[in-house]
Amino acid sequence: QVQLVESGGGLVQAGGSLRLSCAASGRIISTDIMGWFRQAPGKEREFVARITWSGGTTDYANSVKGRFTISRDNAKNMVYLQMNSLKPEDTAVYYCAVKRGIASTYNYWGQGTQVTVSS
Predict the structure, then answer these.
(1) Could you report the per-residue pLDDT of 55-75, keeping only the tens digit for each?
(2) Which ranges of the chain does DSSP label H, i.e. alpha helix?
(3) Band of residue 48 on the pLDDT scale cut at 50, 70, 90
(4) How far is CA 45 from CA 42, 56, 67, in A?
(5) How does DSSP classify residue 104?
(6) Among 21, 13, 17, which Cα is nearest to 79's?
(7) Measured distance CA(44)–CA(62) in Å, rounded
(8) Of residues 22 and 102, which shows the higher confidence score?
(9) What are the C-alpha distances in Å from 14 to residues 8, 109, 111?
(10) Do the Cβ atoms of 20 and 83 come closer than 8 Å?
(11) Which parts of 1-119 are beta strand (E)?
């Protein structure tokens, strides 16, 4: 089992920055993939970014490429999402998640943290 707790959300003006953190407790294994997703009001949850726990290979949604950076600290069991040049359309609840094994979906999810970007 893995428990995930997100933090760092808040209200920011367009063009500003926020850094989200995800604290993972329980066993994280080397083949796990850590992801960030978001869900805006009235919309489906969408992929934002992911990183492999072992090698740190990253992948981003086109909508955030060049503005967001995902990183991890293996020693602290933490995953981060640095968000720069924020836009009102980035407003959403942001979720941290873990994909394990050959599952096509993410197995563990956090409760989410609200990010609101004002224009």
Answers:
(1) 889 999 999 999 999 999 999
(2) none
(3) very high
(4) 10, 24, 19
(5) S
(6) 21
(7) 17
(8) 22
(9) 17, 28, 25
(10) yes
(11) 2-7, 10-13, 18-26, 33-39, 46-52, 58-60, 68-73, 78-83, 92-99, 108-109, 113-118
CA pseudo-torsion sign 56, 31, 61, 117: negative
Amino acid at 89: E
The predicted-structure confidence for 76-95, as pLDDT tens digits, reads as follows 999 999 999 999 999 999 99
- Side chain identity, residue 65: K
Count of beta carbons in the 10 Å neighbourhood of residue 32 = 21
Please name the amino acid found at residue 2. V
Query: Among 62, 50, 61, 57, which Cα is nearest to 22's?
Result: 50
